[in-house]
């Protein structure tokens, strides 16, 4: 077993991402280094990493102080519960060994695990590894909405309702008649990526989310994407769609490609253009571009009423909370 500090984890990120790709039961975008390291740096930059590697198996946790609780070992991203801290079929045994060594030098702390495979073959050995040290409680599952793009745009449309298809046609027509045009970028260098991110932030400041205080143009959320997008770009995985009218940016959508999948990250548009259906037009445009690229699935993220119309319920992962036994 090899311990990994923050720098060591960054150096091992290619091997780690390869292991994530090889693990079919976890979220293979949100468990990647681009997601977990960016979240850790933006939200918990001072938190100590508790990470280890054994061959193709990895454990990636951080000790984070939670108000009223104290230190909790948890995935580098646990806010949405997407990322798995355990990567590889042998990661449960690796976690057991790592916790055993940790117990020799520090007091036991609660353990939160999210993004776990729901299969018995993965949960059973994990529970066996943890039960001697922890009283375990289940955590609510995380459902992702994923649109199959098999059959291209026509195939995707065939799985939508007649009402949805009609509304989408209206939105795309209104947007086109309003003089809105789309451009897709796949930057590879930091300067181009930063410039595109600034354009997206400019749109965000005019969105309903920003006006309601829920936007991503400030605070840790801004830093999260400022760190993630260059990491994606360096792997040729970033896609940024911009909507413009008369040379002014009025909408954006960006996300990351992994294998034959695409993970949407953020999208928004000028609030005063909501009547056009610009949000729907952005989604329709990126779907068309993804199909042309040969992408087979579009992950829209966690469950919501809006996403239910665009996609089907996809990957479900579970979680465990471990309370140290006295």
Q: Could you walk me through the main structural features you see in this protein, from its secondary elements to its overall organization?
A:
The protein has about 325 residues and is α+β, with helices and mostly antiparallel strands. The chain has two domains: about 1-140 and about 315-325, 3-Layer(aba) Sandwich (Aminopeptidase); about 150-295, Gcn5-related N-acetyltransferase (GNAT) (Aminopeptidase). Helix content is about 40%, strand content about 30%. It is built from twelve helices and 13 strands. Strand 9 and strand 10 (about 250-260) form a beta hairpin. The two termini are about 25 Å apart.
Brief sketch in words of this structure:
This protein is an alpha+beta fold. About 40% of the residues lie in helices and about 30% in strands. The relative contact order is 0.16.
């Amino acid at each position: 077993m090899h311990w990994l500090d923050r720098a060591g984890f960054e150096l091992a990120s290619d091997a780690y991402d390869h292991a994530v790709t090889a693990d079919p039961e976890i979220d293979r975008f949100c468990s990647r280094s681009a997601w977990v390291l960016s979240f850790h740096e933006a939200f918990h930059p001072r938190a100590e990493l508790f990470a280890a590697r054994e061959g193709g198996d990895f454990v990636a946790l951080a000790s984070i102080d939670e108000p009223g609780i104290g230190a909790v070992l948890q995935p580098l991203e646990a806010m949405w519960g997407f990322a798995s801290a355990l990567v590889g079929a042998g990661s449960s045994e690796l976690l057991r060994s790592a916790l055993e060594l940790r117990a020799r030098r520090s007091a036991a702390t609660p353990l939160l695990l999210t993004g776990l495979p729901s299969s018995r073959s993965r949960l059973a050995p994990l529970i066996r590894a943890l039960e001697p040290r922890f009283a375990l409680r289940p955590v609510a599952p995380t459902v992702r909405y994923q649109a199959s793009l098999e059959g291209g745009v026509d195939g995707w449309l065939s799985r939508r309702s007649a009402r949805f298809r009609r509304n989408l046609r209206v939105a795309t027509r209104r947007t086109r008649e309003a003089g809105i045009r789309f451009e897709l970028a796949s930057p590879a260098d930091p300067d181009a990526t930063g410039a595109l991110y600034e354009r997206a932030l400019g749109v965000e400041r005019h969105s309903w989310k920003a006006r309601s205080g829920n936007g991503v143009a400030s605070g840790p959320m801004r830093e999260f994407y400022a760190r993630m997008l260059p990491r994606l770009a360096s792997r040729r995985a970033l896609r940024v769609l911009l909507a413009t009218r008369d040379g002014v940016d009025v909408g954006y959508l960006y996300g990351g490609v992994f294998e034959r999948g695409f993970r949407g990250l953020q999208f928004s548009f000028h609030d005063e253009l909501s009547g056009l259906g610009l949000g729907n037009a952005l989604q329709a445009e990126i779907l068309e571009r993804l199909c042309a690229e040969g992408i087979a699935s579009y992950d829209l993220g966690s469950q919501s009423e809006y996403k239910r119309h665009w996609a089907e319920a996809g990957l479900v992962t579970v979680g465990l909370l471990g309370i140290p036994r006295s």
